[in-house]
Write a structure and sequence with these properties.
heterodimer; A: 498 residues; mainly alpha; 2 domains; two-stranded antiparallel ribbon; 2 strands; 1% strand; globular; B: 283 residues; alpha/beta; Rossmann fold; 11 helices; 10 strands
């Protein structure tokens, strides 16, 4: 049978069920990822546009490839602007301020690239959860197909087609989302001016490229997950205890964090390398610190769950903690995006503090620069939090579908829906609290040598806590959505007949 | 012949269990006062028509009504009575409505029409067909126990916590619930499995843990749906023996849905279903 015919067989109108729902979830995940990816790409494009003499990336990297004449004019403008900086005590006019802001453009590109680097983690996690979601339902169906005589090649093709179509759909919706979000981004002020359409618009070729890229990504990741799920006709998953994460993770975490602390404490030693080099160094240190949180995260969560599982205060806690211990990696993946968001929130809060108006000249470029770091951080934080919430929601929903049979049994035996919802919430919020503590602690430790006591300024704290609150709200929305999914589950595909 | 042997075995067994504190709980004492022959569940004129239900569920249905109109009801005017401490096997071919009957008796599902009454004790009765879902959930948790074919244990929980779970759902605290669970494991000779998770056990071991879980709350009725369906003959017999002995020691009635005459032989009474009817009228 032709693969497409086979695919159509499974997607007939009226053939609704869990499969349909998981497809919808996967499409949502792909759409959210694409929207945010394109928006971030648009932002980077905008900063490159501003930093480059003829608005192209090639010119930014290599001045020889600039359009004729543009580079020279650009250099001249910069030199003039340099003179404004040299003269102390001048009142800033809008014109002069803007000219000096232009000389900071390279720094903006570096920071935007850093934000991108940070967002890679939640992207990968979201793509992974979308692929896993697709594979989770395929297990049963594909085994049945194999049993009915389908060849492995047919099954693999079917899966790949399924994933690719979901991704194509999702990416298409994501492009619409990108266009919808653009007016909002244009409201933001960077370098004291709004983004223009041509700065944020990445161009049609890039859109097509992203569409193709997302589809290929889904194709590849679904093939990889499929390889792990051996599709034998009798594909039954056996579940045995997994070893808990090893303690060496903690040692590495402690050693590296201490090293980073010392490095940041003596960051002035590197002042000779230039401002941008110091920036790269500091943000690099934060990135390493964040990676370390990822190394230690699974261990901390397992430890916490184990402590709470020793004497659970009720049935919901017992189920939740055991579920975390069953697969601490899954629990960590569920909230790892938030770990990142908290890191960004801490950095952002410092930007907000320095950038806030303290009676200084509102046109002072260095002031504007700090304010922009705050705004950019806030933006990155929002993106990271949304990505984390979507992927956590998708992951929870897919785990609900995975455990559908057990939930049904528990319901039959007289477990009320409230206990099960409570267990699901605990399963998310215990790791969430843990990760916020570890991540917050880690980033504060790294920031302390740089900003010292200003960390405890009310403005910083307010900004920090609102950032963390945002994460909690978004994750709660994700958990709530998963619970909604679970509520519809009990009736789906179930008929009390023998 | 075989049935008689089994009844004798069950009668002899209780001594092994009466030594523990739970056999002397309130409910067992109440059972002892009730004369044999007193009903625990009565069902009258049950009709279950899935097609009719689906018609009302989606009035502007996607499914053409004519396609469903000719389907025979899963239960067609079934009346059934279960006495205190009685063991009944429900047999019949696939699609005869056995599981549907079990689900309705246990308050898992509601019939299209008819009544199910659960008699707690002395003139106190619940109309299962007349109470809300939450109350039926509570009743299932407190008064009934369930043993399914497989997959009812949570794979993440070790055996002892799987057994403790229904107790904890009822509000018992962790240490007391796990103590009770350990007693049950000991009673069924499974103490060495306490910290094992279902994935690390054999099918027979899992079913024994499931039986312990079903009985841990001292239910008045244990519902078993093909409890040995996933086991080999010898293990199946062993598991049935344990289920019957433990239920009898507890004073619980047992309803077993099965295809297997060997399993039915463990029960004091067998009823047969065919096309949604109980053969031989009211049972």
């Amino acid at each position: 049978m032709n693969t497409f015919t086979l695919w159509k067989l499974f997607h007939r109108r009226g053939a609704r069920g869990i499969g349909e729902r998981t497809s919808a979830l996967a499409v949502i995940a792909f759409a959210a990822a694409t929207t945010i990816f394109l928006t971030v790409l648009g932002g980077v494009h905008g900063f490159i546009w501003r930093a480059s003499a003829d608005h192209t990336l090639g010119c930014l990297i290599n001045s020889a490839s600039c359009a004729p004449g543009t580079h020279e004019a650009w250099e001249r403008a910069r030199n003039e602007a340099g003179m404004f900086v040299a003269a102390p005590g001048t009142r800033w006019t809008a014109e002069r301020s803007a000219a000096v802001m232009d000389t900071y453009s390279d720094g903006y590109v570096i920071l935007a690239a850093f934000a991108c680097l940070m967002l890679v983690v939640p992207f990968v996690s979201l793509a992974g959860s979308a692929a896993r979601l697709a594979a989770s339902r395929r297990d049963a169906r594909l085994s049945a197909l194999r049993l009915a005589g389908a060849t492995t090649a047919q099954v693999v093709k079917l899966t790949a087609l399924d994933a690719a179509i979901q991704a194509l759909f999702g990416a298409g919706i994501g492009i619409v989302g990108y266009c919808a979000v653009m007016p909002l981004i244009m409201l933001l002020k960077f370098q004291n001016r709004h983004f223009m359409f041509q700065e944020l618009w990445v161009g049609l070729p890039v859109l097509v490229g992203v569409l193709a890229g997302v589809t290929v990504l889904a194709l590849v990741s679904s093939l990889i997950t499929l390889r792990r799920v051996a599709i034998t006709p009798l594909g039954v998953m056996s579940r045995a205890a997994q070893p808990l994460p090893a303690t060496w993770r903690v040692l590495i975490f402690l050693v590296v964090m201490a090293g980073l602390y010392l490095l940041l404490n003596n960051v002035s030693m590197f002042a000779g390398l230039g401002e941008n080099a110091v920036f790269v160094l500091v943000f690099g240190a934060f990135f390493v610190g964040f990676t370390m949180v990822n190394v230690v995260g699974t261990w901390v969560i397992a430890k916490r769950a184990k402590a709470r599982a020793r004497r659970p205060k009720d049935a919901a806690t017992m189920i939740a903690m055991r579920r975390i211990l069953d697969n601490p990696k899954r629990a960590w993946r569920n909230v790892s995006g938030v770990g990142l968001a908290v890191f960004i929130a801490v950095i952002t809060s410092i930007g907000t503090l320095v950038g806030q108006d303290r009676g200084g000249d509102p046109l002072d470029p260095s002031m504007l620069y700090m304010r922009d770091i705050g705004t950019g951080g806030l933006l990155t934080l929002t993106f990271a939090a949304v990505l984390a919430a979507v992927s956590s929601g998708v992951m929870q929903a897919s785990s609900v579908y995975d455990q559908a049979a057990e939930y049904r049994m528990l319901r039959l035996e007289g477990t009320d829906e409230r206990t099960l919802s409570k267990a699901r919430f605990k399963e998310v919020f215990t790791p969430l609290n843990t990760v916020v503590l570890v991540s917050g602690g880690g980033s504060v430790l790294l920031l302390f040598p740089i900003v010292a006591m200003t960390l405890f300024d009310p403005v910083t704290l307010f900004s920090l806590f609102s950032g963390i609150a945002l994460c909690y709200v978004l994750i709660a929305v994700g958990a709530w959505t998963a619970n909604r999914a679970a509520r519809t589950l009990n009736m789906v595909g179930y008929r009390a007949d023998d | 012949m075989k049935r008689n042997q089994n009844v004798n075995a069950s009668v002899a067994a209780p001594n092994a269990y009466t030594t523990n504190a739970y056999a002397a709980s309130d409910r067992t004492a109440a059972h002892a006062l009730i004369p044999v022959g007193r009903p625990v569940i009565t069902a009258t004129n049950l009709i279950m028509d899935y097609a009719a239900r689906r018609r009302t569920a989606n009035r502007v249905g996607a499914t053409p009504m004519s396609a469903l109109a000719n389907t025979a009801p899963a239960l067609n005017n079934v009346s059934f009575r279960l006495n205190v401490g009685e063991t009944v096997a429900i047999m019949g071919p696939s699609g005869s409505g056995k599981s549907t009957l079990l689900h309705i008796l246990a308050g898992i599902d509601l019939p299209t029409s008819g009544q199910v009454t659960y008699h707690v004790r002395n003139n106190c009765a619940y109309e299962l067909t007349g109470i809300c879902d939450q109350d039926r959930t509570m009743l299932r948790r407190n008064a009934f126990g369930f043993v399914f074919q497989s997959g009812q244990l949570l794979p993440e929980l070790p055996a002892v916590e799987n057994i403790a779970l229904p107790l904890m759902l009822g509000g018992t605290d962790y240490s007391q619930a796990t103590d009770t669970a350990m007693l049950w494991l000991e009673r069924l000779g499974l103490k060495h499995l306490a910290s094992h998770r279902p994935g690390e056990m054999s099918g027979g071991q899992m079913q024994r843990v499931a039986i312990a879980r079903a009985l841990a709350t001292n239910p008045s009725v244990v519902f078993a749906d093909e409890p040995t369906g996933a086991l080999d003959q010898a293990t199946g017999r062993e598991v049935m023996g344990i289920l019957m002995d433990a239920a009898q020691a507890n004073g619980s009635a047992v309803v077993v849905v099965t295809h297997d005459p060997n399993v039915a032989a463990f029960c004091s009474r067998t009823v047969t279903m065919c096309d949604g009817r109980l053969l031989g009228g009211e049972q």
